Amino acid sequence: MERIERRDPMLCSGHAACPGCMEALSARHVLARMGPDTMAVIPPSCMAIIAGPQPYSSLRIPVYQPTLEASAAAASGLRRALDAQGRSDTQVVVLAGDGGTYDIGLQCLSSAAERNEDMLYVCLDNEGYMNTGAQKSSSTPLFARTSSTPEGKPTRKKNLTGIMAAHGVPYAATASVGFMDDMLRKVEKAKAIRGFRILTLLVPCIDGWGLDDDGGLQAARYAVECGAFPLYEVEDGSRYTLNYSLRPRKVGDYLALQKRYRGLAEAEVAALQAEVDRGWEWLMRLIQAEEVQALP
Description:
Layout: H1 22-34, E1 38-41, H2 46-51, E2 63-64, H3 71-84, E3 91-97, H4 99-103, H5 106-114, E4 119-125, H6 160-165, E5 171-176, H7 180-192, E6 196-202, H8 206-209, H9 216-225, E7 232-235, E8 239-242, H10 251-255, H11 266-293
Parallel strand pairs: 1-2, 1-3, 3-4, 4-6, 5-6
Antiparallel strand pairs: 5-7, 7-8
């Protein structure tokens, strides 16, 4: 595994994140790897609060805050303006939540992917509209209780990485701050690629998920270890690679950490386990198909 290096922080201390926030921790390491020659696009979200109101900012790089639906379009325009100035080496990164990615910003996101715009889009996925009261998004998993689904969400979580891979983009991947070496490797890999790249990072929300104050990292690890959030990457829309193949935990271990699943019936826990198993089998079929095609 890659040794984690100390880098100058691009996210300063004193920001407005909640204590124990996994989003701030994730953004800190992503931005450190991106480096100072980077411009960020941050729509309304928890990350916008963490970054601070303009003209103030907790980031050491320029930040543009567009409307919630327009992140990918704004990043496209920023990229073209930089290219017109001869600044092709300057990176453009979007730091958006799942509400502005899975839902409200999906149209612009899909269009930017179809055009293969040169940007790195990072979705900080806390599985809900946590900044406005923990309402459900299409990233919220089945049965999770939110302020808008107090009896549990009746629909499944959208597969964003699969959707973006279907666009045939150069790079789409999942990552988690609970597996830091893997996350940093993927940031470095995405940084070196040109064209549209997207990373979806699972960032457990202490308040919205009902976690212990120090429970964010444990939840991030359990999500991967039970298969609810598999770590994988897709290159050019077809080459699937699994980055963590173990499943040492049951889904129930992951659910037990979170108050948003408190009181689930055994049948509901079994249904969630079956859903995760089906998703894992789907992913394995794609990976095995790629392995067969690679045989001489």
